[in-house]
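Why does residue order matter? Because the sequence determines the fold. Keep that principle in mind as you read this record.
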Amino acid sequence: MRVGAQLPPLEVLVTRTLIVSGAIASRDYQDVHHDAELAREKGSPDIFMNILTTNGLVGRYVTDHLGPRAVLRRVAIRLGAPNYPGDTMTLTGTVTALDGDTAEIRVLGANGIGHHVTGTVTVTVTLAAGGAA
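Structure:
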C-alpha cells in the first residue's frame, strides 16, 4: 500500500431490501426508510438509505479490500445525494496518508444522481507472525 494507491471500485445495487434491512438492523425505524407512501408525503420520491447503512458499506468496502487483519479506527462520512431503490452506488477509494501500519483512505460513493457519500476511513492493518501483512 502506498499514498495515491487506488482501491478497486465496488458496485452496490441499491435495492428496497438493502434499504429496509439496513434500517431495521440499525434500529432506524424512520418511515422514510421503509414506507414509500409516507416518504413521498414528506417530499421524497421514494424510500432512501439511512446513514448507518451507508457507514457500514463504506467500512465493508475498505476492510474487504485490505483483508481480515484490517481494523477500522475511524469512519467519518458526509451524505449527499440519496440512495434510492433501483440505483447503483459505486464506491471508490484512494490512500491519502500512511503512518506505520495505519492508513487514511478517502472514500467516495457515487450513484446516478451524484455523490451519495464522501469521507475518510482510518484503518490499521496488523502484521501476521513473520511480518507478512
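The first helix runs from residue 16 to 25.
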